[in-house]
């Protein structure tokens, strides 16, 4: 019963305040909550399974403080692909809360077009 209460208490929705999408990386910023010990940023290619195909990185609230935003990066992604990302809260014992909403994001495609330049004739 106690672990169910802890996990239920961790069902906190994390508001992502900033997102950056590059060819091989997705960066998200969010504000931590003092009641949460750590966060997991999870990502996978869409529509693969969370259970078998997700990659994760963990961020402890104590490492950044409860008043500073957390910047999390999903790295080594394939350009021009669709990914699903989400944030999961964890308590000090490692119990996972309910995952936040899925965000579906496309990484930038590799471009062969030359960058614009100024030519003076």
TrEMBL record:
The organism of origin for this protein: Attheya septentrionalis
Protein's recorded name: Fibronectin type-III domain-containing protein
């Amino acid at each position: 019963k106690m672990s169910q209460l802890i996990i239920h208490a961790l069902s906190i929705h994390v508001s992502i305040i900033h997102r950056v999408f590059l060819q091989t990386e997705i960066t998200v910023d969010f504000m931590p909550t003092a009641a949460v010990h750590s966060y997991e940023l999870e990502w996978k290619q869409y529509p693969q399974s969370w259970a078998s195909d997700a990659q994760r990185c963990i961020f402890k609230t104590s490492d950044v403080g409860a008043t500073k935003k957390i910047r999390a990066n999903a790295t080594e992604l394939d350009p021009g692909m669709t990914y699903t990302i989400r944030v999961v809260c964890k308590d000090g014992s490692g119990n996972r809360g309910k995952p936040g909403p899925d965000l579906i994001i496309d990484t930038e495609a590799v471009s062969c077009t030359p960058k614009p330049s100024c030519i003076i004739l």
